[in-house]
Amino acid sequence: MKLTKIKALAVVLFSMTMANCSSPPKPPATPAESGAPPYISSRPRLGEGANFFYRKGEEAYARREYKQALDAYKKFLGSTQPDHPLTDNAVFKIGMCWFEMKSYRDALYFFNSLISRFPDSENRAEAVINSAICLFQLNE
Q1: Cα dihedral angle (105, 109, 114, 116), rounded to 10 degrees?
Q2: The whole model's pTM is what?
Q3: How far is Cα 110 from Cα 130, in angstroms, rounded to an integer?
Q4: Is 40 helix (H, G, I), strand (E, B) or coil?
Q5: How many CA atoms lie within 13 A of 98 on its CB side?
Q6: Which stretch of DSSP H or E encloses residue 106?
Q7: What is the pLDDT of residues 40-82, one digit of tens each?
Q8: CA gap 98, 33 in Å, rounded
């Protein structure tokens, strides 16, 4: 008798789940439909995902605008999962931005973070070398 009650409950739950899945979700209202001006919209603009911030960081770094690159890489790290394939590169580039701005203590933190968190990173050897340079610059 217990088994039939469990089967009945399973059938009810399954049918409820299927009913919820059968109707497509209503798309969110666009700013024009909701009456809100577009500049107040909470929806992200097209292309402003994690990779967008990484590309902006790369562009700023190439122009030697290290403060802008630093901000973009930090936004990238804040908007992506820790296992994203570019996370170790962003951590390294943040260290390089600090290094180029001669903030060796901050650079050392990020280089050591890369070394400990990403032992298989392609940037590991350069992070070790730059860590040594940072320690030299800090007289340590």
Answers
A1: 130
A2: 0.65
A3: 10
A4: helix
A5: 22
A6: helix 104-117
A7: 333 444 345 778 899 999 999 999 999 999 999 999 999 888 8
A8: 45
